[in-house]
């Protein structure tokens, strides 16, 4: 009577192994999609940042060119002639000299030492 009941058991072990395999495949698929999305958004962000950097570099080049133009000798002379820049000559009472004798003495000592060094090199 109960022969049929024991002969037809549910294969729990096989079913469990298929469920575990399906779970790992689904997890792997979701991880793949997540990483592809992350790579796409990171690439878009990098592209936007690179375009911003290029814009800032071009703006920097423009500003440097304008600084060069505004600080050129001819531009400053023209502005001085127009009267826009007010310059006054530097008088001797405004000049401060620190140890003028020591500076001249040091300059002559340095030039003598370099001359002696060069003579020694030529003599060898």
Describe the protein:
The chain is mostly helical and 124 residues long. The protein has one domain (3-89). The protein has four helices and no strands. It has helices spanning 3-7, 12-70, 73-82, 100-123. The longest helix is centred in the N-terminal third of the chain and has 59 residues, at 12-70. It is rod-shaped. The mean pLDDT is 82.
Can you give the mean pLDDT? 82
Number of strands: 0
**Total of helices:** 4
Order of helices and strands: HHHH
- How large a portion of the residues is in β-strands, by DSSP E? under 5%
Radius of gyration: 42 Å
Count the domains. 1
End-to-end distance: 122 Å
The low-confidence parts are: none
Global geometry: rod-shaped
Largest sheet: none
Helicity, in percent?
over 70%
Class derived from helix and strand content? mainly alpha
Describe this structure in a few short sentences.
It contains four helices and no strands.
Question: What are the SSEs and their pairings?
Answer:
Layout: H1 3-7, H2 12-70, H3 73-82, H4 100-123
Task: Throw out a few tags for this protein.
124 residues; mainly alpha; rod-shaped
